[in-house]
């Protein structure tokens, strides 16, 4: 290894050590953003069920995790982070699907908030030629409301899955 390569490696290793210290700090902080990340870590929550896809994939590396926390705190200072509960209605039936809460990096004061949230979450207007969707977004007030809503929606989906599995078992037997 050349001297220049070693210097760069040492710089990288030092950066990782700093991020390790910051991760430990985040896990002890009490602000909204830290509490959300603590909940995700301590409850083994799938980040794709919380964040937009372009953010969720970053939670697999230490440095990206720290960067997400920094992004969240920056966006919060500029009122550009919101917790929204996503509901979807299909044109083919009257049932409303609660897709659950998500973190979005869009200011609720934006004139085109609805369109920006759809784009941020990559929500399709249609998936099949005969079906289209409309979406409603309820803004949740804080991280506690986010977690409560997330847990309620997850329980609902889990119970629905279990009921459908039992029904399928009866039909197949």
Structure at a glance:
This protein has about 170 residues and is α+β, with helices and mostly antiparallel strands. The protein has helices at about 5-25, 30-40, 55, 60-75, 115-120, 145-170; strands spanning about 80-90, 95-105, 125-130, 130-140.
Question: What does this protein structure show overall?
Answer:
The chain is an alpha+beta fold. The chain has two domains: 1-76, no CATH class; 79-173, no CATH class. The chain contains six helices and four strands, in the order ααααββαββα. The protein has helices spanning 3-26, 32-42, 53-56, 62-77, 113-120, 143-172; strands spanning 82-90, 96-104, 126-128, 131-140. The chain has a four-stranded antiparallel β-sheet with strand order 2-1-4-3. β1 and β2 form a beta hairpin. α1 packs across α4 (62-77). The chain starts with a helix and ends with a helix.
Q: Note the run of SSEs as H and E.
A: HHHHEEHEEH
Strand order of the largest sheet: 2-1-4-3
Multimeric status of the protein = single chain
How does the overall form come out from the CA principal axes? globular
Task: Report the C-alpha radius of gyration, rounded.
Answer: 20 Å
Structural class computed from helices and strand pairing: alpha+beta
| Mean pLDDT rating | 90
Portion in helices = 40-55%
Largest sheet: 4 strands, antiparallel
Please, how many helices? Answer: 6
Percentage of residues in strands = 15-25%
What count of structural domains? 2
Through-space gap between termini? 66 Å
- The counted number of beta strands is 4
Please mark out the parts with pLDDT under 50 across 5 or more consecutive residues, or reply none. Answer: none
């Amino acid at each position: 290894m050349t001297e220049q390569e070693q210097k760069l490696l040492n710089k990288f290793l030092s950066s990782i050590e700093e991020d390790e210290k910051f991760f430990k700090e985040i896990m002890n902080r009490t602000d909204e953003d830290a509490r959300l990340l603590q909940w995700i870590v301590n409850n083994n929550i799938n980040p794709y069920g919380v964040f937009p896809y372009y953010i969720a994939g970053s939670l697999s590396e230490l440095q990206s995790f720290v960067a997400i926390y920094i992004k969240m705190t920056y966006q919060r200072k500029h009122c550009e982070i919101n917790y929204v509960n996503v509901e979807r209605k299909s044109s083919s039936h009257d049932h409303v699907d609660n897709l659950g809460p998500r973190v979005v990096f869009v200011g609720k004061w934006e004139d085109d908030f609805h369109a920006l949230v759809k784009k941020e979450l990559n929500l399709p207007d249609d998936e099949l030629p005969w079906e289209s969707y409309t979406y409603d977004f309820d803004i949740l007030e804080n991280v506690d409301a986010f977690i409560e809503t997330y847990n309620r929606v997850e329980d609902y989906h889990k119970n629905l899955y279990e009921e459908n599995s039992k029904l399928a078992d009866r039909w197949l037997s």
